[in-house]
Amino acid sequence: MAVPTQKPSSPHQKLERIVILGLPSFLKRQDKEFSSKFQFLSPSESNLPLEQFLEAEAQNTQAAVCSGGFKISAEVLRHLPSLRLIVTLSAGLNHIDLSECRKRGISVANAGNIFSADVADLAVGMIIDVMRKISAGNRFVKTGLWPKQGNFPLGSKLGGKQVGIVGLGSIGVEVAKRLEAFGCKISYYSRKKKPFSSYSFHSNIHELALASDILVICCALTEQTRHMINREVLLALGKEGLIVNVARGAIIDEKELVQCLVQQEIAGAGLDVFEHEPHVPRELFGLDNVVLSPHSAALTEGVFRNSNELVTENLEAFFSNRPLLSPVLDDE
Amino acid sequence: MAVPTQKPSSPHQKLERIVILGLPSFLKRQDKEFSSKFQFLSPSESNLPLEQFLEAEAQNTQAAVCSGGFKISAEVLRHLPSLRLIVTLSAGLNHIDLSECRKRGISVANAGNIFSADVADLAVGMIIDVMRKISAGNRFVKTGLWPKQGNFPLGSKLGGKQVGIVGLGSIGVEVAKRLEAFGCKISYYSRKKKPFSSYSFHSNIHELALASDILVICCALTEQTRHMINREVLLALGKEGLIVNVARGAIIDEKELVQCLVQQEIAGAGLDVFEHEPHVPRELFGLDNVVLSPHSAALTEGVFRNSNELVTENLEAFFSNRPLLSPVLDDE
């Protein structure tokens, strides 16, 4: 029996319309099942400027999917009057005007915990890399210096080090769990003491830095945490101190960080995120004690599949009036 | 009251004479206490060839301290007829002719477990580095490619990976403990099943490689383990497989490893040790999926202090007829 090889074209009027903001490659990665459930409106595939596109095409659209790089301002929201849901593919929410969303009754879902383990892996990898000079040693060997120069500088021991976790959310917990296995001692800073944790708590970031050999930044970027790691905190971390950032660049005052690294006021850094990505301060390029990474902490082979699944599940839950899978919680 | 600022010179005839083999910088690192207990004979500070020096100076010497790079052959031992103890600063013993030592009744002490945690840290650091492309990403950012090229290739997820530990000694156990915290599944190969371990045991290296995403070489180099990781084992590890070596270069057939890496028959490698150190096959220099390190797994800031303490304690134990602190055990 002959089987039709082509599906009948889906009746568009029955599909929910979803606006895709800032994800030009997102649609290409969709599997057939996903595309058969929703109709996607993509301003990036239109010749119209964003706001004209939204006014022309998206006035009745109830849901949007966005990347972490797309700024969802009050102005953008004004052009989406029917919007009731934003699903962001990022864990961070600093690109979304959350107070405007609250005002307009728009729900927001994020990537939840799906990146946490991978982000923690990169954080720990960067700590070991800087302390044990892995990238620098790799360069030393690959440029043929070993037979010529002999000794390579000693690295630092990880065991016994005091690690301060800034933000004990799902990423911070994963970082701590891994570093405990290396014999590190964990303490943390957050707005409130976490009842589930037995790690030593500091309510003051300056005190945490004073008590730490290594600071790992794992918190959300908010108005409260912007430039929270300032010159004073870096000086409290001190000449032997190492800082690792897998959260958002602007949590650290980048200008002061560069100054501290160049003047050896702290010992080193592992940075996956920056204030003005993809632009990275050139002063860091020549420093062996600084390991830089192109905001790739969450990017491993299965990430798009996992993240698309979560987006689908959040959209389906929304349109069938079930609770979202990864709603943004106000209490972090 | 005037206090004499200089100690009276020690009466040399009362000090035990220790021959130092292959450690030109060892004596300089000694603290005063150490030097006041022993008299060191250092062929590297003499103009005589080694064997003439030993015949002239070391005929009554009962103890020797050596580095891992100094070959203690039957021939060297023949020139040290009174020798009863060798203390090596290395964990590995492949530079010492152990069967000749047994024949001559010479005890051997090594570095015991003092390097295990640091070596395991580097092994795990190299695994994360290769899988998450840390060194490659660092180069990508530091050469200014991020703003020009945008996307950086995805890394591999560590969680859920099958890790095969080759040699579950003190280093292997530390590697396993760390990788469990990353959600890896551990199995191991050794000559005998370890009664203390619940990890899955393979009595055949080929089977371990077949079952593993990552092989970590942590065993001693012996006649049995030389080139144990041959082409067949590498092909069993396979195109997606990663190999990390923090043990000794010659456990892997380096020529075959280079071939497999160049032809992408395995996915990547992290290598701290090589067959002909400090010479490293140049074919590896251009490969982003290979991270090289100048035999520095044990080299962290406190290493010389810790290792000198252990040497002193072994020498003191020997000369006062107490058991050695880190004797070499025949059963690994």
From TrEMBL, chains A, B:
Example of a GO MF term: hydroxypyruvate reductase [NAD(P)H] activity
Signal peptide: none
D-isomer specific 2-hydroxyacid dehydrogenase NAD-binding domain span: 124-297
Entry keyword NAD: yes
One GO CC term, this protein: cytosol
Ranges of residues in domain D-isomer specific 2-hydroxyacid dehydrogenase catalytic: 52-328
Pfam families named among the record's database cross-references: 2-Hacid_dh, 2-Hacid_dh_C
UniProt keyword annotations, A-Z: NAD, NADP, Oxidoreductase
Superkingdom, taxonomy of origin: Eukaryota
Family stated for the protein in its record: Belongs to the D-isomer specific 2-hydroxyacid dehydrogenase family.
PANTHER family cross-referenced by the UniProt entry: 2-HYDROXYACID DEHYDROGENASE-RELATED, GLYOXYLATE_HYDROXYPYRUVATE REDUCTASE HPR3-LIKE
Annotated protein name in UniProt: Uncharacterized protein
Record organism: Fraxinus pennsylvanica
